[in-house]
Amino acid sequence: MQIRGLVQGVFFRDTVRRIAARYEVHGFVRNVGTNVVEIEAEGAPNVVNAFIADVLAHPPPGARIDDARSKAVAVLDEAGFSVKGDLHQSIGE
Description:
By secondary structure, the protein is α+β, with helices and mostly antiparallel strands.
């Protein structure tokens, strides 16, 4: 899913990581552009849905969610849940 708004510089990714630990979902969160964070979450559908609802309902102080869009993606079999670097850093820019 992608979340747009004031989501950078406010500990948004770390907050998502902590929420993921509570739900025991696997995946990652990373910045993908100015004011955009991407979350990939894997697990039972009802657990992933509850995790997403919690993320959207409880952003960190100072954050603002303007838009959230989700889509199904292929399972990557992530081990645990991690905070990744920015997307442009991941592809070598």
